[in-house]
User: What shape does this take?
Amino acid sequence: MCQCISRHNDLLTVISVVLLLIGLVLMAVGYTIPRTYTFNPYTKARDMESTEIYYADLGFALDISITAGMGFIACGGMIMSTVMVYTLICASPENTDQLPLMSNLESQSHHSSYGSTERERSGVSSGRSNTVQLSALR
Assistant: This one.
């Protein structure tokens, strides 16, 4: 069905973890640097204006840092989830006993199609019994 290449999976896993860590660092930097300044009524108006412009630019840069961190976390999470799903799909039949999800799916494959009941599989006609059940509800 598909060929599993473990070296590429390992490389993608490392890349996704690195992206997640970079995103966490960017977000931590964006949230830990203070954005406010202390107002000093004795400073000149021009100095206060330059201080306000500096902190406005700093807040903008920190917002960009937080947004970039969220983007890195999202990309790393998507790559990691894709690698995990690919690993589950490409699990070899010998290793399905190690994966409870795959072995559970294989054990349920002998059931008939969606919507059938035990009585229908055993050959009992359900038409008359449904009529009786419906008349009992009225």
